[in-house]
Design goal:
Layout lengths: L9 H7 L7 E9 L2 E6 L2 E7 L1 H6 L12 E6 L5 E7 L5 E5 L7 E6 L3 E7 L6 H14 L2 E7 L7 H11 L4 E4 L8 H4 L8 E5 L6 H9 L24 E4 L5 E4 L12 H7 L1 H7 L16 H8 L4 H52 L1
Parallel strand pairs: 3-5, 8-9, 8-11, 9-10, 11-13
Antiparallel strand pairs: 1-2, 1-4, 2-3, 4-5, 6-7, 12-13
Helix pairs in contact: 3-7, 7-8
Length: 359
């Protein structure tokens, strides 16, 4: 099977042309910790990162992820290889890791569209949709909101209308994976050689949707863990799947939480209605509290903007500013550490030179 099936094209060929000629291009289709499964012209290979690659790492975002294109060196007479280079990404869905460290994790790379899956069986949350949407805009991919389990909901159209109010201009598709309802609309977004990632909380039905699209039960699906509709983690790793029509899907584990790793430009895209109104305030630096001529305050009082939506906007804005401060502190810390290492190297070099003359 040609790597063209996995999205290889003239753009990626141009990116790869600067790589060492002993390297082979491949796309990562699965990842288990530091073991990468990738597909190349010769078939599927297992690969690890080279020591040189690891030595040059400066950021957690530099680690390859599912969907990435890499240059790797095959091991002779084996289906194994060593990754030497990561090709520049066209898009990447990132999130702040759940650890106490200020670092990001790439969930899926080089994605054209992202299906944001929410379930209408009791755990639906508009504020969560806004957070996901902000991260999708940051990624560079195009969002499509998928409302699953409409068979468990009395009025799915009501929920679709609510989502339309907060996801301006975004396509919304209501489906039931178990009853196979609405897939004719969903399949309209499936195009050959296009990569689509499915993202959402645990239990929203991503694996069931993929099984329906594939036509058989490839992805394991567990029953819900309790009456609150909180699903068990059925997908434990990320995987790239090729559909019969040539669409490339990326399944991802359910995210327990979505910690932001984006800037205020992406926030303004999610909350475009609030951003437009804020530009109409009398003062450029209006804090939307008690300032005269505040367009946001008028809109809240008149019910034009939902108070909960505005509160979430403010909460996410504070979170982003806090993140930027931590990034700045981290950058200064890393620069200081690099300075220390360089100074130590200079001292060691001078010591070696002195020892030469002493002899």
């Amino acid at each position: 099977m040609s790597i063209d099936k996995y999205g290889w094209n003239d753009y990626w060929q141009a990116q790869f042309s600067v790589c060492d000629n002993k390297l082979v291009p491949g796309r990562i289709i699965r990842q288990h910790r530091q073991l990468y499964h990738l597909f190349c012209e010769a078939g599927e290979y297992e690969a690890t990162l080279s020591g040189r690659y690891l030595h040059k790492l400066e950021d957690s975002l530099d680690y390859p992820s599912v969907g990435d294109w890499v240059g790797f060196e095959p091991v002779a007479n084996e289906t194994k290889g060593v990754i030497q280079q990561l090709l520049p990404r066209r898009s990447a869905f990132k999130r702040n890791t759940a650890s106490d460290k200020t670092e990001a994790q790439v969930v899926a790379a080089n994605v054209d569209k992202i299906f944001l899956v929410s379930a209408l069986d009791g755990d639906f949350n508009l504020r969560r949709v806004e957070r996901y949407l902000t991260e999708v805009w940051e990624s560079g991919a195009t969002p499509v909101i998928v409302l699953n389990k409409i068979d468990k909901c009395d009025d799915p159209d009501l929920y679709a209308d609510k989502v339309a109010e907060i996801a301006l201009g975004v396509d919304i598709v209501s489906i039931s994976a178990t009853e196979h309802i609405g897939f004719d609309r969903l399949e309209q977004f499936l195009k050959p050689k296009q990569t689509i990632a499915l993202l959402g909380s645990s239990g929203v039905g991503k694996s069931s949707i993929i099984n329906r699209l594939i036509g058989y039960d490839k992805m394991k699906v567990n029953a819900l863990s309790d009456e609150k509709s909180k699903g068990r983690h059925t997908t434990s790793h990320r995987e790239l799947i090729l559909l019969e029509n040539g669409t490339i899907l990326i399944d991802t584990p359910g995210l327990r939480s979505i910690r932001l790793w984006s800037d205020e430009e992406s926030l303004e895209q999610t909350f475009a209605d609030i951003d437009v109104l804020a530009r109409k305030c009398r003062f450029v630096d209006c804090e939307h509290q008690s300032e005269p001529g505040c367009a946001i305050k008028f809109a809240l009082d008149d019910g034009v903007i939902d108070q909960k939506r505005y509160d979430n906007y403010q909460k996410m804005k504070r979170e982003m500013r806090s993140l930027e401060m931590r990034k700045s502190d981290l950058g200064r810390h890393l620069e200081k550490e690099r300075g220390k290492k360089f100074s130590k190297m200079i001292r060691q070099y001078k010591e070696i030179e002195r020892n030469k003359y002493d002899k």
